[in-house]
Design brief:
2 copies of one chain form a homodimer. Chain A is an alpha/beta fold. Chain A has 12 helices and 12 strands. In chain A, the strands form 3 sheets. Chain A has a 6-stranded parallel beta sheet, with helices on both faces. A 4-stranded parallel beta sheet of chain A has the order 7-6-8-9, with helices on both faces. In chain A, helix 7 links the parallel strand 3 and strand 4. The radius of gyration of chain A is 25 Å and the shape is elongated. Chains A and B meet through helix 4, helix 5, strand 2, helix 6 and helix 10 of A and helix 4, helix 5, strand 2, helix 6 and helix 10 of B. Chain A binds a DNA duplex (16 and 16 nucleotides) through helix 2 and helix 4.
DNA sequence: TTGTACGCGTTATCAC
DNA sequence: GTGATAACGCGTACAA
């Protein structure tokens, strides 16, 4: 930068202003400076810029699992907003078993991002709250009390999914549950409430976030003497695992066994998948999360914000009446 | 940091060393320093650290499309290596239409990463080469002359896929091609060579990287009077689009129409998808790309490196003999 | 272990 | 309105 300034016959400060399109530098001088910079192969150093500017322009983004299309949807939503507001994104990725969450958040904090937009955190409410005291955080797809959150009513979604299956005539409905953790119990509760309301005994089968493992669990379930006629999976990735298991057993989704997922991630609408699911609307959650982050960056002291959407059922081809009804 | 040093009764330099687990700090002092830091709520500033250390420890990662499982695979492979070597990752994401590539590379360059690991770049060879002169680059899943590359022989893969279909007895085989660009023509050439060798006329249908758009193109193809009996898609995402189209027309993959993908991204092996494909081995490409980046960081002047794998066919359920054979 | 010169911009504060 | 000067920001590295 020093060199550019010297070669252009101006001060370093002016070079800085020119590169940032700041006003206070005449068009002619700016063009000249940029031309000289180009000539000398000067590339501004963002690290130095961040340090010097006490950085408030970039947001951290935590995405739990790149193999889950929902997080690609959320990322799309976030970037749609941040691109428009010319905010940079610092992205970190979790791990399927949730062991990366705290480390990723620490990284973002150490990078001094203005706000962390976290999608799919599996840490406890308490840990998340503590974390958000240090660097403001927006939780996406999860409600964390005391922390800005953009979420959807999971209990309601669980009710919708289960009631849909009940209305189709199913009585033997299993729920493939994710590992229990703060903030991810609503779907299970919705399922159990709906079952109880129908006078049925819930059948909650513990499972994981891995498509393969859900498939394995489902195969066992299907092979049992009391196999359910319908399966509600805690998310779409799980539902894909269920569909895998049905394929392995040569069963047709929606005919032999009904399947409901959760998320409406973009894969679920593909004709070849055609999964009945609950619409979480990842792109919208991402957009709103980013907008909330912008608000939070403006006023760090404001009360925690909360947006809760009411999810809807999207009925597609993987659900139908049980055999013999 | 100043405060921590004062409170612990040591110098700033020692605090720095303590936080980096560097040797030259006695265990007791380090523990004391960390305790004091914890007390004061001190969080080291990575931005400052990067600037001060003239940064050579972090790698930039460019992933073209988060909706494509291949890039999740590649990311997994990269992180497996970089976690072990305690290298940080700065991640940027492209856009389906390739318009984000240059901007993402510029961002990584401005962030002064040691090496950029780029997966799925769609810019021209010339642009990529020019870019790599500024910041060393490793191209993953693509060979760029003059740039470190970890790739797979796409022409060979195209041959394998087509020959597989020919051996099954297919004569009417269409290739759904990606938009033409440097470095992504091998699969098409392999297809065309194999067709010519069999005395058949290639039928290359232009398409895109979007699952939805490939599905739409395929539906048209299936509805034509001269619909092919087999379809080879330029990648797995495309093949999923083809499967979508088959589902929409109530056709069974591997029975009514055979489908071959390309990548063997982790979705393709799911029992419910069970896609015949060419194994690109994303996790391995990622690992090798990361290892190559480490080499490159050590010796920026070494000759460009190139690893080319010979891909293999993975025959699964979406291919079979054509009807009537 | 410590002192201290960096690294590389940004952002007041001024001068014309 | 244009441009210059100089004081930061926050660690790291190297000599002492």
């Amino acid at each position: 930068m020093e060199d550019v300034a010297a070669a252009a016959g101006v001060s370093r400060a002016l070079v800085s202003l020119a590169y940032r399109n700041a006003h206070g530098v005449s068009d002619t001088t700016r063009d000249r400076i940029l031309a000289v910079g180009e000539d000398l192969g000067y590339v501004p150093n963002r690290v130095a810029a961040r340090l010097a500017s006490r950085e408030t322009r970039s947001f951290g983004v935590f995405l739990q699992d790149l193999h889950n299309d929902l997080f690609a949807d959320i990322h799309d939503g976030i970037r749609g907003v941040t691109d428009e507001h010319s905010r940079e994104l610092v992205i970190t990725v979790g791990a399927l078993d949730g062991t990366h969450d705290l480390r990723s958040l620490a990284t973002l904090q150490e990078t001094r991002v203005a706000v962390i937009i976290a999608a799919g955190l599996t840490i406890s409410d308490a840990d998340a709250l503590a974390q958000s005291k240090r660097t403001p955080m927006v939780a996406v797809a999860r409600h964390i009390p005391g922390v800005d959150s953009v979420t959807s009513d999971n209990l309601h979604g669980g009710l919708l999914a289960t009631e849909h299956l009940l209305e189709l005539g199913h009585r033997s409905i299993a729920f493939l549950a994710n590992p229990p953790s703060d903030g991810y119990l609503g779907r299970r509760e919705g399922y159990e409430q709906a079952m109880h309301a129908a006078g049925l005994e819930p059948r909650t089968v513990p499972s994981t976030f891995s498509r393969l493992e859900v498939a394995a669990t489902t195969v066992q379930l299907l092979d049992a003497s009391d196999a359910p006629t319908a399966i509600f999976a805690h998310n779409d990735v799980g539902a894909l695992g269920v569909l895998d298991a049905l394929a392995a057993r040569n069963l047709t989704p929606g005919v032999d066994v009904s399947v409901v997922g959760y998320d409406n991630s973009s894969v679920s609408s593909a004709p070849g998948t055609d999964l009945t699911t609950i619409n979480l609307n990842g792109p919208m959650l991402g957009r709103e999360g980013a907008l909330m982050a912008i608000q939070r960056a403006i006023d760090p002291e404001a009360e925690p914000m909360l947006i809760t959407h009411l999810p809807e059922l999207i009925s597609r081809g993987t659900t139908g009446a049980p055999r013999g009804v």
